[in-house]
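ESCALATION

Customer reports they have been waiting on this structure for their group meeting. Please prioritize. Original submission:
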Amino acid sequence: MRKNVIWFGLALALLSLALPLAALEFSAYTDAREILVSGEQEFVEAIAPNTTIRLAPITTDYLTFTGEFAGLNPDHVSFEEVFDGLQIVIHDVQNLSIFGDAEQMSQILALPRYANVLTFRNCDGLSLANLDCGHYEEGYCTGGVLGFEDCSGVTIFNCNLWGCGIEGISLMNTTGLDCSFTTIRDCSYSILSLFNSRNISFSYCVMRNNREFDLLNFSNCARVEFHNCVIYDNSSANDWGSGNLINSSGSEILFSECAIFNNNVDELLNASDGVYFEHCSIFNNKNWGYRPFYDEGRAEDGDPGEEYYYEEW
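Update from on-call: job pushed to the front of the queue and completed.
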């Protein structure tokens, strides 16, 4: 068992080293016009087909959307009301890339607690890379990080998606998403939710320290794959009913060569139909008897104070 723990430590270390190296290898849509953006107005104006937007690094400033420039680009940008403000919606655009700084990332924050950081609707050929996205203050019930509705051909690369939002990625009626070398962490309700979507791939991603309900959610989805991902220190064991790491309905999901461990859950799966594991290492996923972020005097995440048990899938 000690060898397995050491191996996972090495895997995490190698994955963390691979992220910045991989960031330098990602390229934009080759025929796109390129625009350097440093503020909200420039960003709203720049949204258009066949465009690459480059943002300033995280050390310079963060980008937020107040709705001050609503109506400036009605063909491709709108602002929708949420409980405590407005959220930006990018829509009806093709071959749009939004790139942060490759070495330091660029930060986009949602000021309303109940807004998505970025919402995309009816878009094709999206590329997001080197972005650090989250909320300025934590909210509840609504407001994730990245939301996609009726989209296709989406690429997410070397991004840090963190909570709050309530979850890192939300998909509705989306075909073709490739998410790689990306971290989803510290989200307040789940890791991700996919509805009526297909041809979805997550590779070399880290998903950690998320809570509080079912964590990986799939409804009527086809050809969803997780490859070489590390999923650990998440919690769905709560007072609201059973908590599953994976909640799948009418979907087909494959986990290959993934490490899934140290998750505080009642069950790994709500149902085994349509969920497959190939060459995965899965251990210590159980109800630890406390609720992370709520119970005081507990051990730190990743150290439940008990011997691991190990399953090979």
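Sent to customer with the following note: The chain has a mean pLDDT of 83.
Escalation resolved.
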